[in-house]
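Researcher: Please predict.
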Amino acid sequence: MNNIVLELANIRHAYRMGKNSLEILKGVNFKLFQGEWCCIYGASGSGKTTLLNLIGGLEQPTSGTVTVGGVDPAQLSRRSAAKFRAQNIGFIFQSYHLLPELTALENVAIAGTIAGKSFRESKKLAGELLEKVGLADRMMHHPKELSGGEQQRTAIARSLINSPALLLADEPTGNLDPHTGETILELFKSLRKSDPDLTILMITHNLEIAQLASRSVKLQEGILCD
């Protein structure tokens, strides 16, 4: 049986709005196993991005626990938790979040140095990953010189540099035209084929994209429904 990479136990999350509280997540329980590609889908405003932020440690749940590889980062010191996330969780954002002053190679390599790798090792790995995602001839270009699809490929390479236990993708095709979005989804398929242990949790509002995954789960009224 595959290992549990991610476990959510009774996750609740609410936002304060003056004297009132708006509950977004209402007791989410979920397990993700090694090698799965799972899509969480649902309408805009259903709390998908909030859930992904909680899993990635960008926000803290009101209650409940998030464990990655059996570790609850909330129980670690701030510095240890940040290092744990850098080493074990890869992020792919809808808006790429590349640093404009850095080349594609440097944008990928910096994620390796943050996790504790030497710059030399990170630069070597970054070059290999950019080649793997089809950007061998674009690695010395800055983000403004890259198309949207090339920027997202760079972001995907960056997310992989530390061989993370978990890859989190927030609407990775949301800012792309349909054809370019298709090529990004094909890249995800290719990455999983070359690494069967790669575990991906992707959120989308597009049911067609969700159906490409090995498993899809709907987020509705604050609860995940298999």
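Model: The beta strands are 4-17, 20-33, 37-41, 63-68, 89-92, 166-170, 200-204, 215-220, 223-225.
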